[in-house]
Amino acid sequence: MTRLLHIQCSPRKERSASQQVARGFIDRYLALHPRCEVSTLDLWSLDLPEFDQHAMDAKYAGLQGIALSPAQQDAWRTLEALAAPLHDADLLVLSVPLWNYSIPYKLKHFIDLVSQKDLLFSFSAEHGLRGLLQNKSAVVAYARGLDFSPQSDTPAQRYDFQKPYVEAWLGFVGVKNVHALIVEKTILGYEVDQRARQEAVNQARELADRLE
């Protein structure tokens, strides 16, 4: 049975273009794989902790191989709990809007919390860095207000720090099989927005048809 985790990165809920496209993929995938177990991680409903002194000290204690204090252990257990859904899932689905040419700060906060040695990656002098989320796939629905496509006659594509960042992070933590779904031009009027959304949802459904 496949376990699918939807990481919602937009606060717009039902109005979100990225979530609409991700939902199109998930609904079609569920129709084809009814035994699939779906869970949701809404970053805007989580009380994400600060990466404070205890968490930082726990990180470096782990890097140095020394015992953690009780306060450090508590901080580390919180990070382990946040990272656990990523390990439990077989298929990650992220709905990511473009904010200021990059990703929402909630997603960056989450990534900074869970991307720790022995949580999402390992490190040794012999083998170097190795992502721990092996044998998983990811589908990322990206939403952009403008046209960031290569054929665009605007300079917008030079400022795309959204898709490269997300895919670099996924690769770093071990997720190599990544599929992108892109909806663009969502601020260019209602008709353009709706047409772009529908085209991206259609692509999402086609992708669901192809994935095992």
Question: Could you spell the SSE succession in H and E letters?
Answer: EHEHHEHEEEHEH
Report the structural category. Answer: alpha/beta
Q: Count the helices. How many?
A: 6
CATH homologous superfamily heading: Flavodoxin domain
Query: Span from first to last CA?
Result: 11 Å
Low-confidence stretches: none
CATH class: Alpha Beta
* Structural domains: how many: 1
Cross-sheet strand order for the largest sheet: 2-1-3-6-7
Computed CA radius of gyration, to the nearest angstrom: 18 Å
- Report the CATH architecture: 3-Layer(aba) Sandwich
The averaged pLDDT comes out at 95
Would you mind describing this structure in some detail?
By secondary structure, the chain is of the alpha/beta class. The protein has one domain: Flavodoxin domain (Rossmann fold, 3-Layer(aba) Sandwich). The radius of gyration is 18 Å and the shape is globular. The protein starts with a strand and ends with a helix.
